[in-house]
Amino acid sequence: MPPIFAAISTTDADDIAAWLRLSLTPGIGRQRARQLLKTFGLPQTIFDSSQADLCAVVSERLADALREPPPGLYELLDTTCTWLNADRQRRRVMTLGDPAYPRCLLDIEDPPLMLYAMGLPVAWEMLADGRTGLDLAQAAGMAIVGSRNPTPQGAANAHDFAQALAQAGLTVVSGMALGVDAAAHAGALQVQGTGRDAIATVAVVGTGLDRVYPKQHRTLAHQIVRQGVILSEYHLGTPPLAAHFPQRNRLIAGLSRGTLVVEAALQSGSLITARMALEQGRDVFAIPGSIHSTQSKGCHALIKQGAKLVESAQDVLEELQFARAAVPAAASAEQEAVGAETNALLQALGFDPIGLDALQARSGLATSELQAQLMGLELQGLLARLPGAKFQRIARA
Question: How far is 89 from 397, CA to CA, in rounded Å?
């Protein structure tokens, strides 16, 4: 086993300082850093090496840069150690050589030098023994991604699929963004409880872990820290830069056996995650939608390109041959709708958005009766009001 993967525990300030110095050195990106680690071993050995030895691997200019501590190193070291010491149980810094570093990320083309983590204390043991995707053959992670502006049906699908997959023992991996990501995390967190042998959800974010983005997800972030794990490859203090979010998608895909795209436009970042999953040899799944919906175009494009069309969480589990636990059969909310008239209105609604006038023509109901029944269905969570005075029936996965 090459020195780069030697088992070390990143708990000492000197170790953290060396890894931070390597990652901050101007001109030394992740690829060159890995070349240096493969040649010299641990980061401190790199900095202790002679100019001539360094020049055998990198240019003279970069060798010079490696000989001097980079700007901001000691400030970031102080910030990092303070952050760690504030909650040693729930906070970790993992490096390429750390025993808790997810081994499946070592198989991707561009693994991070460092991972910052906050979460359930037992998660570190789970990360180390393979229950959240360390070996692809045994990986228990499932990525769920999609639009930041999903339809009500898309948000419901993300929540329900995540809940069902988490119930079966899979760890739901997503990016804590608005829309589908948030719904997926929320669905998985509903399953978390005593006796589980998998982490309910992992959020991979594009900022430092000392800030929450978007801000409205502060409560969600706190829930994930209590019941799951939040990961970032970005140093503390890193703001939400646009370029970081496509980069973090490779980690979402890499932590998972497969990626499920719930809803996505043709230019969605979710398609980047799906492409990275394919490049990493993972499965890609997509939920079909209305041919009239912009948010379904990306999923339909993936299906045309070979992604597996799925209509239920069971479809995913069967494709993955993942049968740790059966998905419980839940009574459909639609089956619980009371009264033949209400069921008739559900049939008239269909699953595409529809305006009030068209719905009245389909159902034959008087305006007052139609409005009353629509209100009842909305209160039951069986339909949603959309912009443009339209309605859409909501099916539960």
Answer: 36
Question: Mean pLDDT over residues 185-206, rounded?
Answer: 81
CA-based nearest residue to 26, from 56, 63, 74: 63
Chosen domain end from 21, 54, 77: 77
Answer whether residue 329 is part of any domain.
no
Same domain? 24 vs 142: no
Query: Do 152 and 122 belong together in one domain?
Result: yes
Mark whether 315 and 184 lie in a shared domain.
yes
- pLDDT single digits (tens) 251-274: 999 999 999 999 999 999 999 999
The terminus-to-terminus CA distance of the chain in angstroms comes to 45
Residue 197 lies inside a defined structural domain of this protein: yes
Q: What is the DSSP letter of 165?
A: H
Flag whether the pTM goes above 0.70: yes
Query: DSSP per residue over 212-262, as a string?
Result: -SSGGGHHHHHHHHHHSEEEESSPTT----TTHHHHHHHHHHHT-SEEEE-
